[in-house]
Amino acid sequence: MEGTQGMFWEQRSGVGLARAHFEKQPPSILRKSNFFPFFLALYDRQGQPVEIERTAFVGFVEKEKRPLSSSLVSLGPAANQEANSEKTNNGIHYRLQLLYSNGIRTEQDFYVRLIDSMTKQVSFLEFHTVATTLGSQNLLRFKSCLCHH
User: Fold this and answer.
1) What Gene Ontology molecular function terms does this protein carry (predicted)?
2) Which of 20, 35, 65, 113 could connect to 91 by a Cys-Cys bridge, CB 3.0–4.6 Å?
């Protein structure tokens, strides 16, 4: 999970996400062509649930690159600039509108990525296959899979 928008409000008000918890895990065996539901609950720094008021599909993560020699998964912007790297074609980018328990609203960029459970590495996907199979309607169903407290 990475955030870009809403950082000013987070710094000024002291709000921010501290933890995400799977209420329902994705299935253990996935195929690239499957839509998979999961339920995710978000919590702030005080341990209070954060309500997800709105979810918007932004796009696929198609240009991110991972260093060939790295064994760690990098979600930061520096991963896009590696000279000796390969495309991951892994991830879906959403923008969330969050409501904290103190009434403050923020927008948060949110990335969903497939990680191999054995190696802890980003899975490599062929997006032309995934995009054709999933379509935008299934991607927008992500909103209904997020837990609201």
Assistant:
1) DNA binding; zinc ion binding
2) 113
The answer to whether the predicted template modeling score (pTM) of the entire model surpasses 0.85 is no
pLDDT of residue 4: 39
What is the CB neighbour count within 10 angstroms for residue 101?
15
- Can you give the three-state secondary structure of the chain, one letter per residue? CCCCCCHHHHHHHCCCEEEEEEEECCCCCCCCCCCCCCEEEEEECCCCEEEEEEEEEEEECCCCEEECCCCCCCCCHHHHHCCCEEECCCCEEEEEEEECCCCCEEEEEEEECCECCCCCCECCCCHHHHHHHHHHHHHHCHHHHECCC
Of 112, 111, 107, residue with least CA distance to 10:
107
**Between residues 97 and 32, the one the model is more confident about:** 97
Domains in the chain, please, with CATH? 7-26+38-66+83-145 (2.60.40.3180)
Contact criterion met (CB below 8 Å) for 79 and 66? yes
